[in-house]
Amino acid sequence: KNEVEQSPQNLTAQEGEFITINCSYSVGISALHWLQQHPGGGIVSLFMLSSGKKKHGRLIATINIQEKHSSLHITASHPRDSAVYICAVRRGAQKLVFGQGTRLTINP
Amino acid sequence: ETGVTQSPTHLIKTRGQQVTLRCSSQSGHNTVSWYQQALGQGPQFIFQYYREEENGRGNFPPRFSGLQFPNYSSELNVNALELDDSALYLCASSLSGRALNEQFFGPGTRLTVL
């Protein structure tokens, strides 16, 4: 079993729908990151969380440390949100452990 | 624009060859981490350099080695290339090795080993 599990692995939705991507982890962490990766490979950091909730535009990320669970929400989804969304947890100072990613496709 | 750059963007090598990948960190960042991302998988941590010293290593063999220079740019060297080394190699820079500092990723180098 991977230390970081994401669900779903693939998600297709219509423009405007509310999107939720989940991340569960099995180890103690110091922080959790949500990342976005577009075709071609470049990764953009969306959020870094150690507790509670953060919001940036249409994106909301929450974390429950006791339940070892985080969610990424996208409101009013748009085709340009289509990408792979990756959850990564920080263990200690050096190492990020990544989930396998969730491939999101938003159709017009 | 993250400011982290990598070169080259694409590279094709044959089995047994050696390769050097380069990363320029964002201005002011003193820590560089390298990751390997196989097709369809999440990235895997290779190692991290902080102030020119290796500061943590993942489960990769010694033929994966690195350097960090005084200007905090970094190289990843892979010797005796194997077919399974074909992947996207990502570097990320941050301000220090501390846990809560955000990492900024470069665009990656896609390595194909034939």
* Residue windows where pLDDT falls under 50 for at least 5 positions of chain B: none
Total helices of chain B: the number is 0
On the 0 to 100 scale, the average pLDDT of chain B is: 90
Tell me roughly what share of residues is in helical segments of chain B. under 10%
What structural category do the secondary elements of chain A indicate? mainly beta
Please report the distance between the alpha carbons of the first and last residues of chain B. 33 Å
Describe this structure in words.
The complex is a heterodimer of chains A (108) and B (114). With 108 residues, chain A is mostly beta strands. Helices cover 0% and strands 61% of the residues of chain A. Chain A has strands at 4-7, 10-14, 19-25, 31-37, 43-49, 52-56, 59-64, 69-74, 83-91, 95-98, 102-107. In chain A, the strands form two sheets. In chain A, strands 2, 4, 5, 9, 10 and 11 form a six-stranded mixed sheet that branches. A five-stranded antiparallel sheet of chain A has the order 1-3-8-7-6, with no helix packed on it. Chain A is globular. Chain A starts with a strand and ends with a strand. The model of chain A has no long low-confidence stretch (mean pLDDT 92). In chain B, a hairpin with a 6-residue loop joins strand 4 (31-37) and strand 5 (44-50). Helix content of chain B is 0%, strand content 50%. Chain B has strands at residues 5-7, 10-13, 19-24, 31-37, 44-50, 53-57, 64-68, 74-78, 87-94, 104-105, 109-113. Chain B is mainly β and 114 residues long. Classes of the chains: A mainly beta (108), B mainly beta (114). Chains A and B meet through strand 4, strand 5, strand 9 and strand 10 of A and strand 4, strand 5, strand 9 and strand 10 of B.
